[in-house]
Design a protein that fits this description.
The complex is a heterodimer of chains A (about 300) and B (about 100).
Chain A lengths: L6 E4 L8 H16 L4 E4 L3 H9 L7 E3 L15 E7 L5 H13 L19 H23 L10 E8 L4 E8 L3 H6 L10 H8 L22 H11 L3 E7 L1 E4 L4 E3 L6 E11 L27
Parallel strand pairs in A: 1-2, 2-3
Antiparallel strand pairs in A: 4-5, 5-6, 6-10, 7-8, 7-10, 8-9
Helix pairs in contact in A: 3-4, 4-7
Chain B lengths: L3 E5 L8 E2 L2 H16 L3 E5 L4 E2 L1 H15 L7 E4 L3 H22 L2
Parallel strand pairs in B: 1-3, 2-4, 3-5
Helix pairs in contact in B: 1-2, 2-3
The chains are: A alpha+beta (about 300), B alpha/beta (about 100).
């Protein structure tokens, strides 16, 4: 990314892109264009071209020798979310709500407009949507809070998601081009070794945040629980997180490794996968880390 | 007699969830004005759940700014089990943090 020349991508062997790949591509193309360089994509199949164009991945990109297969832009708000860029924390609530509804999708036998349960006030559809909305909220909040620090004031966040009906799986991706975990956590006492993979492991520990302890002098504090909670939502719904930052990738089902040679992600990229049918079983109260202490004051619930 | 200021949270929710710190911080500014006037604050959670981020930005920051005794002036009304658990977690964690910071 430090080169000065225009970029030509040979996409002749590209046959599948998931939301994680789409968000990473969108962020990469944006960075290159912001450097005043152009991006050309060559050899893309008409089918892939049509799909990626429909997902809004090609903003400002020149396609060479490719006529994307026209795909009708009918409403697919029941299974996927086009690549979306966010830049401000005030957008988090609305974006999480909209994206969660879109990716949870149409479910046979469940009517989103049915009257809510009289006891709980929720419909069956809302029980599915809320864990995804919660996870997106925390991921976007984290990204928009941390990414802009340490010399990256213009950092943005890209989101894409899709429901895969054959596997019954939802994948959503939240990718930023900001400072990355290592820059955020470099001075944190919990970081054992100054490496990107250790920074990812540290970020996954509860109550770890670069600004947890700044308190009164900071414009923003953070309890350091959002990423842990998101991981537990994925885990309880039979899924996983894949996290990339700097030269490291960690998959929460157990694999982690360093990227080879010049491969590097400037920022944080998170993909969350989970089973849609497991979402209604999730209770947020079960996701919180254990408490070290009891409140020193009795809380007043009415 | 202490007057109560009521904050119904459902109007800030998208669906049943209130999530963003930005929403909480603008609400907290209104709460701080009411507290400065000596009022008690009633947070009405009827029909809504809240993320840990939202509760932390609303309640956690009040605890860090004012100390645990601020909780004596806050009332949490009509909480679901989820909302109650998140409030208890944030309050315990931030009170513990406040006590540790001020005991050194």
């Amino acid at each position: 990314m430090e080169a000065t020349a225009d970029v030509v991508v040979n996409a002749s062997r590209l046959c599948f892109v998931d939301p994680f790949g789409m968000a990473l591509l969108g962020a990469t193309f944006h960075t290159i264009r912001n450097q005043g360089r152009s991006v050309q994509i060559c050899g893309l199949s008409a089918e892939m071209g049509g799909y990626l164009e429909r997902m809004d991945v090609f903003e400002g990109i020149e396609l060479v020798d490719c006529a994307p297969m026209p795909m009708q832009r009918h409403n697919r708000g029941d299974s996927l979310v086009e690549l979306t860029r966010l830049g401000a924390r005030r957008d988090v609530d609305e974006a999480s709500f909209r994206l969660a509804h879109a990716v949870v999708g149409h479910i046979p036998g469940i009517n989103p407009d049915e009257p809510p349960d009289e006891m709980t006030g929720y419909t069956a559809f809302e029980r599915l949507v809320e864990p995804v909305q919660y996870a997106l909220n925390e991921l976007l909040e984290n990204a928009l809070t941390h990414a802009k620090g340490h010399g990256f004031p213009d950092a943005c966040v890209w989101v894409a998601s899709q429901y895969y009906p054959r596997k019954g799986m939802i994948q959503l991706a939240v990718v930023d081009d900001g400072c990355g975990f290592l820059a955020s956590l470099r001075n944190h006492p919990a970081l054992r070794r100054e490496s990107h993979i250790d920074a990812i492991f540290t970020a996954l520990m509860p109550r770890i945040s670069c600004n947890r302890d700044l308190g009164l002098s900071s414009e923003s504090v953070n309890q350091g629980v959002g990423l842990t909670t998101t991981f537990r939502i994925a885990e309880q719904a039979g899924g996983r997180l894949v996290i990339a930052s700097g030269d490291a990738i960690h998959d929460t089902v157990g694999r982690s490794y360093q990227l080879t040679e010049d491969n590097f992600w400037q920022g944080v990229a998170v993909a969350m996968e989970c089973r849609r049918d497991r979402l209604p079983d999730i209770r947020f109260r079960d996701l919180l880390p254990p408490l070290d202490a009891q409140p020193v004051r009795r809380l007043r619930f009415e | 007699m202490i007057t109560r200021s009521n904050f119904p949270l459902s109007k800030y929710a998208y669906g049943h969830l209130i999530g963003a710190r930005a929403t909480a911080s603008s609400l907290r500014e209104q709460v701080e004005v009411a507290l400065a006037q000596g009022q008690e604050i009633v947070f009405d959670f009827s029909g809504v759940d809240a993320t840990q981020s939202f509760i932390d930005e609303l309640i956690g920051v009040l605890i860090l700014s004012n100390g645990p005794e601020i909780l004596d002036r806050l009332v949490f009304k009509s909480c679901s089990d989820n909302a109650r658990a998140v409030i208890e977690f944030v309050a315990a964690d931030r009170c513990d943090q406040f006590v540790k910071i001020h005991s050194h």
